[in-house]
Amino acid sequence: MFTLCPAEQVPADEPLRVVLDDGHAVAVYSWNGAYYCTDDLCTHGEASLAEGYVENGEIFCPFHMGSFCISTGEPRAAPCSVPIRSYSVIEQDGQLLIER
Ligand code: FES
User: 57 C-alpha to center of ligand 1: Å?
Assistant: First the structure.
């Protein structure tokens, strides 16, 4: 189990990049009253998804504007075609946690 950050640190509709204790980077999202988490690195190129933006439950990559579902990680818009890993987020005592 990895601690991400306090829930209050995740801005609404704006991704937050978090580097886990093992050095792996993820992007955390607050959208529609819930928290989501995916890998930060886009599957299409060397882009940080945390530098993109969230709209209608999709994270749009800042490089070529492909997108993924923030809940399932499935690609939603080209040029993204490979799913991104997504994680279930647990909220516990104001902290957000994931398993990986
Ligand atoms: S690097 Fe993300 S869409 Fe190309």
Answer: 17
Q: CA of 38: how far to CAs of 17, 21, 41, in Å?
A: 10, 16, 9
- For the entire predicted model, the pTM comes to 0.95
CATH for 31: 2.102.10.10
Q: Which domain holds residue 80?
A: 2-98
Please tell me the total count of domains within the chain: 1
Tens of pLDDT along 33-43? Answer: 999 999 999 99
Burial 47-76 (b: 16+ CB within 10 A, else e): bbbbebbbeebbbbbebeebbbbbbebebb
Distance 74 CA to ligand 1 centre (A): 14
